[in-house]
User: Fold Glutathione S-transferase from Oceanicoccus sagamiensis.
Amino acid sequence: MIKVYGVHGSPYVRKVFIALDIKDVPYEIVRQMPFSEDAKYLKINPLGKIPSLVDEDLTLCDSKVICQYLDDAYPKPRLYPMRADDWARALWYEDLAGGRVSELAASIFFQRFMRPLAFKQEPDEELIARIIEKDLPPMLDYLESQIPTGRFIFGDFMMADLSIASPFINAAYAGYEVDESRWPNLAGLVARVRAQPQVAAVLEKEQRALGLD
Amino acid sequence: MIKVYGVHGSPYVRKVFIALDIKDVPYEIVRQMPFSEDAKYLKINPLGKIPSLVDEDLTLCDSKVICQYLDDAYPKPRLYPMRADDWARALWYEDLAGGRVSELAASIFFQRFMRPLAFKQEPDEELIARIIEKDLPPMLDYLESQIPTGRFIFGDFMMADLSIASPFINAAYAGYEVDESRWPNLAGLVARVRAQPQVAAVLEKEQRALGLD
Assistant:
């Protein structure tokens, strides 16, 4: 059976759980915190990040790579568009969302949620203000320009939608919501993603894991 | 005609030029430095990074995404393997090489090469020593474990080989070479990649652009 290394609550691990659930592929979760110095895990993923996937002889890291692999190995239903140009745009949105956008959203989540909880430290509100007022808006403006009004990006719900929404789900745990008067298409997309049944089911599990239920 | 935004010398732009040359697809280079604050370029790439590709109505950013698109749109010769597991491993190697490995190698290049040249500043040798002695070796150990002896990773020369070699080509401009007694498979791969005719041709152009000829 496929093994997924990770924990509930990571914006990256979430994508893999949801992709597997949508494709109805059974998997086992191997509990693994990110950035552990565990030498055994570093052999699986030299970056120590999560998720990693082990499927018999194949070991893969990085949620983008894992989700692309799953779409190829278990093609129904498709989570990436078939047309070459749409497919490439989907990859780019996922790269941007999992890169710069997640870094910023994860900083809000880390500062306001994980730091008080795990380290008993106050959040750095100056850093948070800079992210919310200065660093995030150009990214949100760009995403807003790419997202259609009232529907998923490529028609059906796909990985592009989930990967864009995922960091904002974490930011919301820390009290940050995308301003729907300023970025209505993005705010609408995040809401539509949350309402997907397989997404809602995973979010319920992770809220229990994070002690938010 | 396809437009590639970027400059010679970037480890990421290099991948795209070489992919296009191998596939014999004509393109126009639009000279663009990374991290410019040019509002027009930020509309193409909100991160301000290079390369970006514009092909009629399609705008794509990120060298991984662009190279995947090119392999799909111009399939001959293939630069990614056809088997699902090999293909996914190739994506993971490219992600690692363009991520953490490039960050480290680019720091050596920036400190020793760009900083004196462009900013008339001394390199931070303490930072360089930490990268070379502490941060890079675990990445090199991992890559060494994944690379076969005496040949390319998937038989033919492909993007996985080029993306792993590319950051080390930049580090070599700054005097850092992979120690072939410690990491012989990796050092051998970098040498084999350099010897590919389309790679050698692009390296010749970029050495002229960097004033190294």
In short: Residues 84-209 of chain A form a domain with the Glutathione S-transferase Yfyf (Class Pi); Chain A, domain 2 fold (CATH 1.20.1050.10).
